[in-house]
Design brief:
The chain is an all-alpha fold. It contains six helices and no strands. 66% of the residues lie in helices and 0% in strands.
């Protein structure tokens, strides 16, 4: 049996239902709820994970193909050696086909930045290791800054959450 509250006892407010606690009026901005929803979507959205991995793999293939094509171009001695010319054509062909596949998922601004930045570093390494070219401190610092910029672009891009 429940008795009405006495004048000495104030009435208790009814506890809100559990679903009311988490409900937000339409149009009301809840920063923490928005942040949690977005973070959860990024962490748990496995629908496109395979497609994203395939796109990044294609971008890696494009980078390697472009580096091979550029290195073969340097070795072609002004288009006078047929072996390097054929390797250059094959490398650039693979590069651009793979890059077009990657661009289906990765925004062009991010893809181009990663492709050119990592490609510059890879071509520089090939030039140093196989073509005997020397890199001074300034050039090495510049390559390191390019790679750092590429990492920053990737970390702060929104392409990994599926938005374009």
């Amino acid at each position: 049996m429940s008795f009405p509250p006495s004048p000495a006892q104030p009435a208790r407010a009814a506890a809100p239902a559990e679903d009311e606690v988490f409900q937000v009026e339409p149009g009301v901005h809840e920063p923490l709820a928005d942040l949690a929803r977005e973070a959860g979507a990024r962490l748990h959205d496995a629908r496109h994970a395979r497609r994203r991995w395939a796109a990044w793999l294609m971008l890696a293939v494009a980078i390697v193909g472009g580096a091979i094509g550029t290195s073969a171009l340097a070795a072609s001695a002004g288009f006078t050696r047929m072996g390097p010319i054929a390797l250059m054509a094959a490398g650039y062909g693979v590069c651009f086909v793979a890059l077009t596949r990657a661009l289906r998922v990765i925004p062009i601004s991010v893809a181009y930045a990663v492709w050119s930045g990592v490609g510059i570093a890879l071509v520089s390494a090939i030039g140093w290791l196989w073509l005997g070219q020397q890199l001074n401190r300034g050039e090495l610092l510049g390559i390191a800054l390019i790679l750092a910029g590429t990492v920053v672009i990737q970390l702060f891009s929104r392409c990994h959450d599926g938005s374009r």
